[in-house]
Amino acid sequence: MKARRRFLWSLIFGIAGMSSFPFAASAGDIATQTLAVGQVLRGHFMQERKLAGFANPLKSSGSFVLVPGTGLIWRGEKPFANTTVISSDGILQIANNQVSLRLPASRLPGLSHLYVTLGAAVSGNIKPLQQTFSVTQQSGGAQWKIVLKPLHPENAAMSQIKSLVLAGGKFVDSVEIDKGGGDVDQITFLDQHAGNADLTADEKSLFQALHK
């Protein structure tokens, strides 16, 4: 279960970073272009996972589709193909064209809370984040950085996260997830673009699969 929490936090906060977080330096608030219901955010990612005791980080890359109010499709392409779908209904993982993991929300205590947190990030609403994290904001020109640290690290859902650092401009360009003990995930987002494009038949099928 701890491994699943680590995986879930990595994905959710990595993807939370892909919403747009404007930075109004004068007010110190986050408020820029955000995704609305009906919009879709697409792009690519590169991830480096540094593990204590290993000299070289584990590297992976792929693409993503984020749909506010619906969920996230996270496709790993290298070093091997796999797909993860997350929504308020649960988590679905597919590898080698076979379902390798299906967890309904009822079997993942804390998923609804994490999903609400993701929704707050996507909408540009920082207040719900402040209920869970201490939030430090910095800005410099068109760039900004946010540091999130759990207010209650003893909470089971938070115990796997030491801090998160989100940085970017129009969109989040990078997310660093410090899991403590020398384990750090660094996610870089590329080629991000938001629009009202319809989901493909395959993408619709993946979201529908969570209801089976």
Question: What features would you describe in this structure?
Answer:
- The two termini are 22 Å apart.
- The protein is built from four helices and 13 strands.
- With 212 residues, it is an alpha+beta fold.
- It has one domain: Lipoprotein localisation LolA/LolB/LppX (outer membrane lipoprotein receptor (LolB), chain A).
- It is globular and about 40 Å long.
- The strands form two sheets. It has an eleven-stranded antiparallel beta sheet with strand order 8-7-6-5-4-3-13-12-11-10-9, with helices on both faces.
- It has helices at 2-16, 111-123, 127-130, 201-209, and strands at residues 23-24, 29-30, 40-50, 58-67, 71-78, 82-87, 90-95, 98-104, 133-140, 143-150, 163-168, 172-180, 183-195.
- Residues 1-5 and 14-32 have low confidence and may be disordered.
- The longest helix has 15 residues, at 2-16.
- Helix 1 (2-16) runs parallel beside helix 2.
Q: Order of strands in the sheet with the most strands?
A: 8-7-6-5-4-3-13-12-11-10-9
Estimate the mean pLDDT confidence: 75
Count of domains: 1
**Portion of residues in helices?**
10-25%
Indicate the overall shape. Answer: globular
What are its keywords?
45% strand, eleven-stranded antiparallel beta sheet, two-stranded antiparallel ribbon, 4 helices, 212 residues, outer membrane lipoprotein receptor (LolB), chain A, alpha+beta
